[in-house]
Structure formats: C-alpha cells, structure tokens
C-alpha cells in the first residue's frame, strides 16, 4: 500500500468519523440550549480514565472507555443536582463540577505515578490523531468511532420525531405522551458516548469544537431541522478533511519540514466556518432565517 | 512539612507562593462574585482558553525580533489581546446564536488555534518552547519574587477597582434596564467587569493554569452566595474563601511531593462548595 | 373629584405637558407596532393608557423611555427625554430580574437613590431614611431586611414602586401596575399613586381593567397602534371611542359599571 493509505487516510477517516459522531448530538444540544454540556463532559473524561486505570490496572481501551463514560454520566447528574439544589445558573454549576473533577483527575494522575507512563494531560487535551496509522490493520479507534457514529445515526433515526418535538416544545411534548425526561437523558448519554469515543482519538478540544461549531454554523444557514442536520454533517466532515490536510501539508508547502497539530487545526477551521456562517447570516434580510 | 508551609516556615519560596496564591484567590473570588451575579460564569472559561494563541503568537513575535521568547510581560500582552478578541467574538456571535454555544465555539476554536501555534513553535525549534505548556495547568514551582509581586499588586488593584465599582456593578447585574435609567452605562460596566476578570485570568495563568482558573472565579463565588443576602457580603466572603483556598492549597502542595498547586486549590474550593450545598442547599424543587 | 379635575383641564387646553409625544412610530421587521402615535400628558394628571392586546401599550412606554428605538419626537418637561431622565421613574410590569439575587428589600430601594449617592459617595443616614420612607409609603417597611425573592409577587411589585419613589421623580410611567397582584397591593399602589398626583406628580399607567378606569384615573389615552382618543375620562372614556379602539365586539359590554 502506498504512503497515503498507511499514514494519511486513517487520521483523515478518524477525524471525519469523530466529527460526525459529535455533530449528531451537537445539533440537539444546541437547540435545547445545553451546548456547553460537551465542554464539561470532555473535561471529565480525564478523571474517568485515570480512575478506571487505577482501579483495574488495565490500560485497555474498553476499560478506560467505561471509566470515561461513568465519569461523564456522573458529571451530568452532578450538574443537574447542583443546579437544582443551589438554584444557580446552569453555566456556573457546570463550571464548578467540571473543574473539580478535572482537578481531581490531574491530582490522581500526578500523585499515583500514572503520569507519563500511560497518560498525560497534554495528550488528553490535544489528542494524537497523527499517530493513528495503519499497522497491519486499521487502528482500533477507527472501528470504534465508526461503530459509535453508526449507532448514534441509527438511534437518531429511531427517535427523530419525538426528539424534535421534545426539543422544540418540551411542555407540549409531555402532554402528548412523549417521554421528555428519558429523551433528555438519552441525549446526555449520546453526548457522553460521542465525547468519550472522540476523546480517545482526537482529544477534548476537538470534541468540544465538533459538538458545537458545525451545528451552530448550520443553524445560521438553514431554516429546517433536517437541512440543519445535513449541513452540519457536511461542515463537520469538511472541517475534518480540510483541517487534517492543512495540518499535514501546509508547512511542507512553505518548505518547513514538520507537521502541525491536526486536532487544533480542525478546531480552528470549524471556528472559521462558524464565523463565516455568522457573517453570511447577518447579511441576509432579517426574518428569512 | 504542610504545617510549616501553612505557618510560612516552609522556606522563602513556599511562603511567596502561598501569599501570591492567597491574593490571587481573593481577587478571583471577588471578581467571580460579580461575574456569576451577571450570569456570565462560562465567559471566563472562553476568555482563559483564548489566551493560548496570544501566548504562542507573542512568543513567535519576540523570537522573531531577536528577544527572549519567554519574556513574561510580552506573553501576558499577547494573551490579553487574543483573550479580548475571544470575548469580542463571543459577544458578536451571541447576537445570532445562544450565548452558551457562542462561548463553547470560541473556546474550542481559539484554543485549537493556540495548539496549532504551539506545534508550529515546536517544529520551528526556536527558543525553548517547553515552558509555554505550563500555562495549561500553571506552575508555581519556579515562582520568582517578581512574579509574586505582580500577582500580589495585580490582585490588590482588582479588589480596589471592584470595591469602587461595587454599586453600579450590582445594579447592572440585578436590573440592567433600571441601571440604565439611573444614568449607569450597562455596557461600560460590563466592559469594566470583563477587563477585571481578564486581569485575574492573566495573573492566574501562572498559578492554576488556564483550564482551572474558571474554578477560582466561580466556585468561591457561588459558595459565598449561598451564605450572604447582599452583594457586598457575597463578594467579600468569596474573596475570603478564595484567599483561604489559595493559601492552604499552595501550602499543601509545597509540603507534598508531586501535588500540583492549581488542582489542589480547586479541590479545596470544591470541597467547601459541597459542604455549603449540603448545609444551605434547597431540600426540594 | 375626577369630574372637576376634568373640568379644570378642559379650561386649560394649553396646559403644560409633562410628557409630549409626537408621531411615534415603531416597526418590528414587517409589523407596525406603533403608527404615528401622539399624546400630551398634562402635569399633575393621572392618565391610563388603554387599548386591546397587541395595541402597543407597553411598547409605547418603552419607546418613550428610549428602551425601544422608535421614530418621532418625545419631550419631557420641555426637553428631550434623555436629558430629563433624572425626573422620570419607570416601573415595569414585572421586573425581569433574577429573584434569587442576593439583595434585600432595602438594597433594592437604595438603588433608586443612586443618582444622589453617585459612584463613590457613601450611603448617608439621610439616604437610608429616604429609602425607608419610600418603603413605608407602600407599607413594606417591615420587610426591609428580607431577601427580595422571599416576597410574594404583589409585595415585590410594591418594592419596585418604592424604588421608583426613592428616585424622587415627578413623572411616573407604570406598565400594568395591577397585573397579577393581590387586592391589598392594588389598594396600596393606587393610594400611593393618588397621593403622588395630589403633590403635583404626573402619573401614566398602562391599564387593563376597564371597570376601574373611571375610579382610578383622571384621563385616558386610547391606543391601538395609533392614538384613537385622549382626554378626560368623562368625555373620552365613551362606548363609541372604546368600540373604535377595541372593535365593535366590546361596544355593547357594560364597561362603565363603576362610574364615580
């Protein structure tokens, strides 16, 4: 196989799949005004992974994934409980919970000697997309993300109608017998799943970017939910491809012998896409959105 | 060792770090009180993450000009510029999408750009980029007297400014419409508050790092709010909690090997919050 | 009493307007919320703004205050509203505030004294006494140290009226001050408003309950995007004018059951 297939295609596919997995729940988080939940969740993945490793001694992807999912679920429950019991705005409750859990993760990492051996904080933040290459077979992250993205798409297809109803008008949906609380919990779970699967491959920062930017940009450019979802997926894949290519080749074009962070570049590209969408939308006549 | 550090007997550097962290905690607590009352808690998170590209660009610019890339005031200036740009972007985007989403989008894309710039610095191999990563989680180990002085005076200046502006800030946070009719400019007050929060974020980069500074702003503030029925009381109590956590956290981390300062401070503040929630939280509803 | 007041104004048709509105127009995208509305609110009178839902009554008040950007000229006491803001107090229908905010009732009223206290000034005993007096006028002095969120809706409304009183204004704009409040609060508010009027202040209130217009107010402004009629209650608050403002459906309803 040639170099492209071995070294460049897997990161490209993984980035695109991570983008899809995040953009799917991202659209509904955005519409239900819970966009920052992704921020909180991708920060609490770290303590989940560390705790899972410390408890089981196993560094397998499945164990760490389970730990991360547990931490993400715990953070969602904690944020709800804190918001309810303190009466504060959800943003503040989120900030309190995710910083505390992230700090706990860092302390565990540093004091138990786990740091540097199996994990480090910077990797958790940036991901290491570039190192996911074809070694006699596809990297496990590729299969895992493909599975998660397909699962999320299928689940979304199944609950599409009640979910759109519950997102648009939860009170009305409730009166129509739609299980609003269950759907809300399901969306939280889907976000956690996407965040954890994407995190292991692309790091937390790209996860946040992909949960929010494509959906927000699509929201500004479209007028119906199906169109928004389709455009957001297109933008997510576009950002993933463009970002990976720019990170890998832009320095070479300038004659520099190294590559840039692909995750960082994809996040930047998705931000620029959102900025462009905002400019386009603000130049359209009001009332046409 | 912890007790020695708590009593400022753990050596000159430990004492310096403890006092610096206490003053940072105080100013962050007070600024955070007004920030959370204005319901902009997560804005500080976007601001903190948006400092990263500025730090990288400032490093590159200073190296390109033949200087030392790690010159702290230069890095701070760069951080302030991109953080302000990030804040502007959040406000601009909030006209079109929900503020939450705008905050997250700016946070992630500015931070992503910062990471790209850091890998660029690494690739170029100019100067010593290694030091730049400490802004993520902070580092108090190498804190110098000059750094401690900057933190101390910066913190005091922020507290003084907040005291002077406490009444209009409270009025804008409570009822911006009425504040406007009473001759206060809500937008100017918001800008002033954001500038003060930015000052805290910049100072805090050295202690807690940019990921956890939001905790120093928000956690003591929401804790204090559950104990006080007035704005001034909330701000003063938040400052006190922040100072106590900063001081104790720095002392503990000085006394225990491998224990990072920023996360310990954050965990102390979170513990106080948890206790407060149990004692003062609503039982139902 | 309302009748001889009305007579007074009938004589001095050129009486000074505390607030004069000319050609106020406001458009929300394609919807015309206010269409060339004009009115004069004489000094020392108590005027109700009435009209059907969606007639732009609240919008009228907000545009007058510059909270909404409308076209037209608005002057208060002969100068632009922005310059006369210190003499104007506004009480919104229900203040859009965070009720868990850490302020006590007395702190809210003290916010009305900000123009006197200024940025750096101390809150003197005199200022506190003034805030306390404002609370007493609305019968809320016993609640001064309560947190604002611990009060009932009607009590909160009275506190916001006290805040307006503490401002020392002589032009009061109120948006549905009696909406959703208990009877005790309604009585307390109307007493305060009438005593303000008797000391020369000008009161303008958006009002919903047509059955109390004649007992509470001296004058009415009938508004339905544009001015339908304005003048003393006795001559303006007529079935014909109401039918014109509300449409014929209301024409036959016995609105005037409680004439004074």
Could you characterize what this model shows?
The complex is a heterotrimer of chains A (289), B (285) and C (260). Helix content of chain A is 80%, strand content 0%. Chain A has 289 residues and is mostly helical. Residues 285-289 of chain A have low confidence and may be disordered. In chain B, helix 2 (12-37) packs parallel to helix 8 (145-174) and helix 3 runs parallel beside helix 6 (99-124). Mean pLDDT of chain C is 86; it is low at 1-14 and 251-260. Chain C has helices spanning 2-11, 57-65, 105-111, 114-117, 125-137, 153-166, 183-198, 213-216, 233-236, 239-246; strands at 17-28, 31-42, 46-50, 71-76, 79-80, 88-91, 171-175, 202-206, 219-224, 226-232. In chain C, 45% of the residues are buried. In chain C, strand 1 and strand 2 form a beta hairpin. The chains are: A mainly alpha (289), B mainly alpha (285), C alpha/beta (260). Chains in contact: A-B, A-C, B-C. The interface between A and B is large, with 67 and 65 residues.
Number of strands of chain A: 0
Q: Fraction of residues of chain A in helices?
A: over 70%
| End-to-end distance of chain A | 48 Å
Radius of gyration based on Cα positions of chain A: 19 Å
Number of β-strand runs of chain C: 10
What fraction of the residues of chain C are assigned to beta strands by DSSP?
15-25%
Structural class of chain A: mainly alpha
In percent, how helical is the residue content of chain C?
Answer: 25-40%
Report the average pLDDT across residues of chain A: 87
Order of helices and strands of chain A: HHHHHHHHHH
Query: How would you name the CATH homologous superfamily of the domain at 2-201 in chain A?
Result: ABC transporter involved in vitamin B12 uptake, BtuC
